[in-house]
Amino acid sequence: MRTKVAIIGGGPAGLMLGHLLTREGIDNVIVERQSGAYVLGRIRAGVLEQGTVDLLEQSGAGSRMRAEGLPHEGFELSFDGDRLRIDLAKLTGRSVMVYGQTEVTRDLMALREQAGAPTLYEAKDVALEGLEGSPVVHFTRNGERQSLACEYVAGCDGFHGVCRKSIPAEHIRLFERVYPFGWLGLLVDRPPAAPELIYAHHARGFALCSMRSATRSRYYIQCSMDEKVADWSDDRFYDELGRRLNPAVADALKRGPSIEKSIAPLRSFVAEPLRFGHLFLAGDSAHIVPPTGAKGLNLALHDVRVLFEALAEHYRTGSATALERYSPRVLDRIWKTERFSWSMTTLLHNFPEHDPFTRRMQRAEFDALAGSPTAQRMMAESYTGQFG
Ligand code: FAD
Ligand code: DHB
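^ thats the input. predicted complex w/ flavin-adenine dinucleotide below
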């Protein structure tokens, strides 16, 4: 087998890159470790920045999002029950779109199938060879070891993938912070407790009220990484969530049987540079942000847009200039996004090591935000994806 671009990983980054390349007539193959159903079963991000919405629309992947997504012109911060609305529209002239990662993935999978572009699902034990010259991707599928020769490899295989690990240690630098807590998430077919998202700081820990539609809610509570999902009945979850919210919001919580419940760790991580020879890293394989601020998916799709433009220029003109610029170009946004996600996480969570002074500093930061439209504008710019 032979192709121009081998894309490792069929999550949102890999699927979007494949979609853009296919539209441009650039031959590509996606190699994915899991089945399509498994990929669609993962419940992850829920909020799209304006730039992500524009990318989906301009590339012809936005029709269902336009029809079913919920545009949000603001969100709320809550601090020990005190509420502050960040008016995104007034502060920045922009909004965000509530439309789940699962739906983005489903739409991109459908377009790929329509286009007849190949995705090799359930490809196990992927190994990369020849990254500095003529790459070959090896994998086991249907019990058989197979090879795919290519000109470039796009490493879109997430944090635990094989691509980043294939770069020799002396050619890559890693930056990491693991946070001492996780998020316990619950998905339920009940209308949201409030019309906009609420990010809540509370002495008992962070909580987030989000949604997928007018009838489906997504809630998160900060928890210790020692917690077990099995120990959290739905009622225990709703009781704990309610304690961390403003009482009026807690009263409006509509309980129902969970359709998904899981614990996610929180991590900040950057690998640089995002290139080794003919391999380019994009999305979670190159960087992780803690989910506070809803940036992971948006950043992944920004990477692949820039990588697509570089590959398209290369195949159009023969020039390698844009490919050389890919890593520095995306790293600028990556670090700004890391800073924003880290600062939101630091403001809103309870850290075991925090002393009373640090907790007062969190409160003072919330009060400073509440008193300053300028500070609110900075937060709104980052939340909507304006990073300068
Ligand atoms: P992924 O979605 O991880 O896709 C990578 C793909 O590569 C997967 O399909 C995987 O099966 C495949 N793969 C892995 N290894 C191999 C291999 N060796 N060979 C072949 N294929 C391989 N972001 C938010 O903004 N809000 C959230 O609430 C949120 N929640 C999250 C919860 C969890 C548990 C996780 C892990 C992430 C969450 N994120 C969230 C982040 C967001 O979902 C990611 O940033 C986004 O999925 C990145 O897309 P990606 O395509 O780069 O990576
Ligand atoms: C969701 C997740 C986030 O991390 C966030 O900041 C907003 C929404 C969600 O899953 O809906």
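The longest helix spans residues 321-348.
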